[in-house]
Amino acid sequence: MAETLRNIIYQSIRDDITYGRLSPGERLLENQLAEQFKASRSPIREALRQLEAEGLITFDTRKGISISKLSVREVDEIFNLRCLLESHAARISAEKVTEEQVRYLRDLHSKLKRAATNSDLKSWIQNNILFHDFFSENCGNGNLHKILTSLKRRVYLYHYIIINIPGNFKTYIDHHQEILRACEKKDGKLAEKYMKIHIDKVKNILVGYLNKFPAF
Fold first, then answer.
1. Helices H, strands E: what count in the chain?
2. Which among 37, 44, 127, 164 is least buried, having the fewest CB atoms inside 10 angstroms?
């Protein structure tokens, strides 16, 4: 029961971070969390330790617990690494993709287009994560998958900011369409090319925004 409660608390806070209900730099108070979840301090602290291990929250002896806030340099470095590793994963996955997997990617792409049309930001984030995770999960390199998962977790809190920067949905969809077409052709080099273009574009949009609004 305690393990289940810990997972509920962990997932709830993680979702609040991912979907923009908690912002970078915002403080978390244990007593408020205890009241919110009707829980003792033990499962709350266990959930917070897991979130800290994933880089989503930060403990400071003076300021207490807060949602992690990355510097612009850190964001740039993480996305540069993602660009290298995820494009490599896209190349390998595209070269050995099955028809069933292509159908899965088409379905995700359709859901992303629908989410963009309906301004359904939660659906966009959920399906965008699944779309990108597909390549690291299916490239056949377990260490690459672990590293990418760790890197992506560190920028989960910026997903909501990225999609709230106006005027970019069409660009993201167009990039995904090209990656999907490369998979349909089993063209690894093309998949690698467009994954690099896509992640580099997302990075530039986010870094530009963070430079303009340093409070985030």
1. 10, 3
2. 164
DSSP string, 129-173: HHHHHHHHHSSS-HHHHHHHHHHHHHTGGGHHHHHHSTT-HHHHH
The owner of tokens 């998962």 is: 149
Please tell me the pTM assigned to this model.
Answer: 0.88
* φ/ψ (deg, to 5) at 131: -60, -50
User: Which residue, 132, 153, 130, is CA-closest to 90?
Assistant: 132
Q: Which CATH number fits domain 2-67: 3.40.50.720, 1.10.8.80, 1.10.10.10, 2.60.40.10?
A: 1.10.10.10
Any idea how long the chain is? 216
Domain ranges of the chain: 2-67, 72-212
Of 23 and 133, which is predicted with more confidence? 133
pLDDT in tens, 122-172: 999 999 999 999 999 999 999 999 999 999 988 888 888 898 888 899 999
* Yes or no: domain 72-212 corresponds to CATH 1.20.120.530: yes
Per residue in 5-20, pLDDT (tens digit) is 999 999 999 999 888 8
